[in-house]
Amino acid sequence: MTTAKAEQPARRASIGARRNPASQAAILAAARAVLAEEGYAGFSIDAVSRRAGAGKPTIYRWWKNKAELLIEVYAAEKARVKATKTGNLAEDLALYTAALWDFWRDTPSGRTFRALIAEAQNDAAALDGLRDKFLPERLLDVRTLFAAAVSRGEIAADEVETRLALYVGFNWYYVLTDSLDEGRAAIPAAMRLVAAQLRS
């Protein structure tokens, strides 16, 4: 007769603050599975620990809180969304944005993005992670598109931060209002505005 104990995954040994690659992979896989099955509201470090066979102290040593772990899961899956360079900033941004919205709509971690932003408004640690780690890393692809446009002379270098803020604002408006499908037709026009040459 199989006991409950035998059905649990083998407990993984910790190697301290330095991450064990096998344990890290197991924890991230468990986090993805729990997120897919339970959603953001049902996601917990306890559930991840049980599924991964990793101790909670190990998880908290590597990720300070639930938000940090979810951010890493999001980042790993978001890496599949690639920027395409066509030689035109508006077209590049439109293609990238459409792929990003597909990711937000169709994947468990993408659908969690709205909840992460909401949690950051009430949790200082989650806000720090969103502002200081998540955003800089997640905007790298878009920054490469803007940098390429600067090198082509489409836009000025000192305009990038303002244009980037406009880009983020457009995207977050639709994701935070849960209206990605309704807003999809507006992507090309919005990206033309973000990429428009300013009159001197």
UniProtKB/TrEMBL annotation:
**Which controlled-vocabulary keywords does the entry list?**
DNA-binding, Transcription, Transcription regulation
What residue stretches are annotated with the HTH tetR-type domain?
21-81
Task: Provide the residue ranges listed under DNA-binding region in this record.
Answer: 44-63
Pfam (any one): TetR_N
Does rRNA-binding show up as a keyword for this record? no
| PROSITE patterns with a match to the protein in the record | HTH_TETR_2
Please verify whether the record's keywords include Transit peptide: no
PANTHER family recorded: HTH-TYPE TRANSCRIPTIONAL REGULATOR RUTR (PTHR30055), TETR-FAMILY TRANSCRIPTIONAL REGULATOR (PTHR30055:SF148)
| Protein name as annotated | TetR/AcrR family transcriptional regulator
